[in-house]
Amino acid sequence: MAKGNKDSSEDILEIPFRVFRWNPRKGDIAPLILWICISGLLQLSRFAGPRAPVILQWLKPIADLAYLVVPILFIRLVDKDGLSFLGVSKRRIGWALAFGLTLGLLAGWLALSRSLAVGDFPFLPPVLETCAYFLSALFHLAAIEFFYRGWLASRLEQSYGFIIAVLGSSLLYAFSPLVLWGTDPTVPAAFSSLGFYWSAVFPFTFFMGLLLAGMARFTRNLLAPILIMLPQIILGDLLPGGAAHRISHPESALVGTLALAGIVAVVTWLTRPKPGARHSVPLERFMRS
């Protein structure tokens, strides 16, 4: 009997695949509300003028924390569901590793080859800055994937099907650079114009959103999009002038990242489901489409 309870608690809530379905729920608007609130928070940096990059060093970690903590609280306390359908599980990890590593290494090589062609080579900053960068980068990437390809995409798929999940999460992801567009005074004017965004940034970000959301929903594991993004982000940030070389206070970055990760761990532990409890959302609910 105990074994049966254990097995049932570890099962993933497998939603039958549908290209389209119509099962709207009140909570479907929750990810959009969170996105708007976080965008409003980051917009506060615009009032700082030239000091915007400094202000953003404080605001961005808070935004990442919200992208992780708010969905966990909503899923556990409002939906009273588990995290497995979002892709936080050990199931299908083989598929996630296979697709994630293959596409990630390919994307990383394409990004690096362009830099090598102009004579730019990635290199590690001093040890303390390296540790601070890698911890903060992993925390940020986990937060972004948990929100866009996890909470947002899974809710859309449960309510409206696979196509809407991929398109909806990709569109919101593609619009996200506009939130901070023009806040960095060090960016050349040619790269901060809206024309550059619509002609170059939006198409690329939208395509990446489609790829990442498709892989996440196909493998049912968030490790796939994380592995796809990780090589190109790290290689890009390690190039001369990249984010890894612009960490002014590595000690505070280390402490802050560990503190944020600790908060996420505590929230996850406090809202964990009871041992042996089944998912409270019945599978039949999603069969109506």
List low-pLDDT spans: 1-12, 278-284
- State the distance separating the first and last CA atoms: 34 Å
Question: How would you characterize the largest beta sheet?
Answer: none
Shape: globular
Please state the average pLDDT score: 85
Helix percent band: 55-70%
Strand portion: under 5%
Number of helices: 10
Tell me how many strands there are: 0
Q: How many discrete domains? A: 1
Structural category = mainly alpha
Rg over CA atoms: 20 Å
Q: H/E series, N to C? A: HHHHHHHHHH
Report on this structure:
The longest helix has 34 residues, at 127-160. The protein contains ten helices and no strands. 66% of the residues lie in helices and 0% in strands. It has one domain. Helix 3 packs across helix 5 (127-160) and helix 6 (162-175) runs antiparallel to helix 8 (194-219). The chain is mostly helical. It has helices at residues 2-10, 30-43, 52-79, 93-117, 127-160, 162-175, 189-192, 194-219, 223-237, 250-270. The radius of gyration is 20 Å and the shape is globular.
What topology does this entry show?
Elements: H1 2-10, H2 30-43, H3 52-79, H4 93-117, H5 127-160, H6 162-175, H7 189-192, H8 194-219, H9 223-237, H10 250-270
Helix pairs in contact: 2-3, 3-5, 3-10, 4-9, 5-6, 5-8, 5-9, 5-10, 6-8, 8-9
Question: Could you write a compact summary of the structure shown?
Answer:
Helix 4 (93-117) runs parallel beside helix 9. The protein is 66% helix and 0% strand. The chain is mainly α and 289 residues long.
